[in-house]
Amino acid sequence: MAAWLTSLQTDTPQEGFELALKLARKGVGYTQPDAEVRDRLRQEYAEDADSLTMASQVVAIHFQTVAAANNYWK
Ligand code: HEM
């Protein structure tokens, strides 16, 4: 697979958050490579508050890593 994660460094916290989102979504993509299955399951989680809360939690965990890697953009 072509490299898609070459650095954890980002210029701004917002870009860092977007990287965290990418990591979360890539995690799903590696876990379930079948796009047709992801499309089917999307309909369920998109309208389920608990699933969306868990998805945001995964993003938040990745954001902790990205923020630490950027020394909290200090
Ligand atoms: C769309 C995030 C889990 C399937 C999206 C979008 C976001 C997102 C932000 C809408 C924006 C965009 O299309 O770029 C996440 C996060 C997850 C997660 C953070 C958990 C860590 C899942 C799971 C599935 C899934 C478990 C299914 C197995 C999809 C699909 C779309 C989508 C198929 C595309 C919908 C469309 O383009 O119409 N996801 N997602 N996601 N998600 Fe997730």
TrEMBL record:
InterPro entries: Hexamer_Tyr-coord_heme_pr_HTHP (IPR021111), HTHP_sf (IPR038125). It comes from the Bacteria. Pfam families: HTHP. This is Peroxidase. The lineage of its organism: Bacteria, Bacillati, Bacillota, Bacilli, Bacillales.
